[in-house]
Amino acid sequence: MSLAVVNDMPPEYFSDSTSELFPLPIYSPSLQNANNLLYAPLCDSTAAGNWKYDFKHMGIDLGPRLWGVDRPVYGLNAKVQGTLRLFGSLENVSEASVTFEGTMDLTTPEIGTRSSHDVIFLSRIVNFTSAEIQACSANQNELSFSIPIPSQVEFQGATTQPPPTFCRYYYGFICLIRYSLKVCVVRHGLTKAVDLKAIPVLYFPKSRPSQPPLVEIARPPVHEDTLHTPDLHQSDRIRTYQLSAVYPKTYVGSRSQCKNTMFFSLPSPHCFTSGSKIPFLLSLVFPSDPALGELYFNRIRISLLKRLTICTQATGNRFKRLLTRRSSSKLGNTGASARSSPGPRDSPERSSSPETEHVVQVWQISDGHVKFKSEYSEGVCLYRGFIKTGDTGRECSWALWSAIKVQYILQVTVSAPSHLEDYLPDFELEEPIDLTTDTWETEDRELRSMGGIPVPALGLLKTFDDAMTDTSVV
To answer: What does the pLDDT look like over 244-290, one tens digit per residue?
Structure first.
C-alpha cells in the first residue's frame, strides 16, 4: 500500500499591504523624563576591544571590556576612566562635562496614571574649560577623564555607602537603583545647542566580614552549678537570644512556666559570607516537664528571609498611601509556610514603626537543618545545625541610609503540636544578620593578582539579571 505525501506550503505574507494597514508606532527621538531606561545597549556588546559609544557629535570610550559581561561594570573603589571625543569643529564648543550619577527610582505604573520619584544620591562631575576644549585639537579632539567612585556618600544629612545596582518588581511597584554616565556638550552658534547623552553602567561593590566568622558552635560544657541549665554565654563570639512566646487566646495556664525555655545561639558578630553555612544552637529547656521538649522537636522551623524595606519619610510622602495599601507584608508569598491556627493568638511586642517603614517584599532564601541532637540533662535538649546563606556571591546586605534597605532575617519558629495548639504557646524569633559577597581578608590578594583593578561582585550581576527577566511576583 502506497501513500502519496503532499508537502504543506508555507503561508503567504503580505509585506506592502500589512505595512499600510498597521503602520509602525511613532517614538520620541530622545529619552523623556517619564521614560524608564532599564538597560539600553548603545554599542555592540559582542565586539572585542573597548567600550565605545558613538553619537552624532561625540564619541565616548570607557576603556577595555573586562569581566566577560555585556555592559560596563565597576566595583568598590573603582574609577570611571575614559576619553570624550568631539566630532567636527571645536570653535563653537563652549562647555563639556562628564558626570557619574546614582539615582534611586521608585515607580508606580497604575492604570491610567503613572508616577515616578527619582532621588539623586551620588553625583561626581568633571568639567572641561573652554581652554582645555580648544587645546584638545592637538590630541585628535579627545578629552580624558577619570572619576573615582566614592565608598561613602552624603545622603540626607547622613553618611552612607552607595548601594549596588538593584531592580525589583512587586505588584506594579518598581524599585530601581541605577547608575549612569552623563556626557554634556554645549555649542554656541546662532542658537545654543545642548547635546546630552546618558550611558547606563552597573556598580556592584564587593563586601567582606571584618573578622573570620565561626564555623561551628560547640556543645556547652557541663558544670555542677549548671546541671539543669547550660551556659549559653560561653564565649564573646557567641550571642544567645530568647524566643518570644505567642499564647493562644484560650490559654489558661501560667505564663511564667514558659519563660526562659527556648534559646537560639549564633556566632557574633552576625556577619557572614554569601554561600556559606551559619552554625546555630537551639536550646529547649524544660527541666520541670521534659515531655514538652519532645513535643516541640518536630515543629522547629528555621528560615533565612530577604526583606526589602522602604521608608516613606525619606523617599517622599506621596508614596505613603501606595505602600500602605500594597505592602501588607504577605509572608505567605515568601515560601515560609505559616501554621494556620483555628483561634487567634497574642502577638509579641515589636519595635516597628508602621507609619514610616513599609515592608515591600519578603522572600525566602533557605531553610535550616538540624544536624546534631543531644540531651544536656533531663528536660534540656540541644539542637545544633546550620543554615546556608544562599548562592555564592549572590546575596549582600545594603542600605541607602533609611530610605531603602535590603535586610536578611533569621526567622526561628517553634510551633505547638496541632492537637495541642489551643493549650500550648508558639515560640518565635527574628534576628537580622548581615551578608557579604566575599570571604574575609581576600581584598589585598585579589588586588595584587588583578594589577590594582577592583573586581566587581559578579555574583550580584547574576541576581540583577534574574530580577530584570523575572517580573512575576515572588
So the answer is: 988 887 776 666 667 778 999 999 999 999 999 999 999 998 888 88
* Cβ proximity of 200 and 464 under 8 Å: no
CA dist list (Å): 167 to 148, 164, 251, 468: 24, 10, 45, 7
Among left, alpha and beta (phi > 0; psi -120 to 50; other), residue 156 is left
Do 194 and 257 lie in one domain? The reply is no
Least confident interval from 91-105, 219-233, 293-307: 219-233
**CA distance linking residue 434 with residue 432, whole number of Å:** 7
User: How much of the chain, in percent, has pLDDT values that exceed 70?
Assistant: 72
Domain with 286 in it: 232-337+352-441
C-alpha distance from residue 230 to each of 219, 239, 292, 380 (Å):
9, 14, 18, 8
75 and 146 together in one domain: yes
Domain count, the chain: 2
Q: Is the same domain home to 413 and 462? A: no
270 and 389 part of one domain: yes
Residue 273 corresponds to which cell in the numbers above? Answer: 559570607
Identify whether residues 397 and 298 lie together within a single domain.
yes
Q: Are residues 435 and 462 in the same domain?
A: no
Neighbours of 122 (CB within 10 A): 20
| Same domain membership, residue 301 and residue 409 | yes
CA distance 249 to 344: 6
Alpha carbons within 13 A on the beta-carbon side of 231: 12
Cα Rg of the chain, angstroms: 29
- The CATH number for 270's domain is 2.60.40.640
Question: In this structure, what CATH number is given to the domain that contains residue 134?
Answer: 2.60.40.840
Average pLDDT of the residues of the chain: 78
Residue 300 shares a structural domain with residue 197:
no
Is residue 71, in this structure, part of any structural domain at all? yes
